[in-house]
Amino acid sequence: MSHQTKTHGGSMDSFKWAVVVALIASGVIGNHHFSDQSVLIRLLVLLFVVAATCFVALRTSKGQKFWQFALEARAELRKVVWPNRQETIQTTLMVLAIVSIVGFLLWGIDALLLKLIALLTGYGAH
Length: 126
What we know:
Elements: H1 10-33, H2 39-57, H3 61-78, H4 85-121
Helix pairs in contact: 1-2
Transmembrane segments: 15-34, 40-58, 93-120
GO molecular function: protein transmembrane transporter activity
Function: Essential subunit of the Sec protein translocation channel SecYEG. Clamps together the 2 halves of SecY. May contact the channel plug during translocation.
């Protein structure tokens, strides 16, 4: 299913993760520092910082493993057979009916236990 990804070495990955942290910090600090600027301009700059951060993060060994996992998950998701409208409605109605039945049963048991405790303790009995 999955193939092995090449690892580039710990020191280079550590440097890349440091760059990722620096980019995130610069985005947060920059957004706060330039709070008097237009929201649109800050949004565009933040989108650029997020894109650069993702680009660098995906160049690490963990980032490559994550990307491979995402691709495999997408391929598996395409294999899922989704229910049609009628099956969805029937299943939803069955769930609602069972939940209602269980709710009424629990309510009845609770009321019965409350009466039993009231009889045994004399508290709440009239």
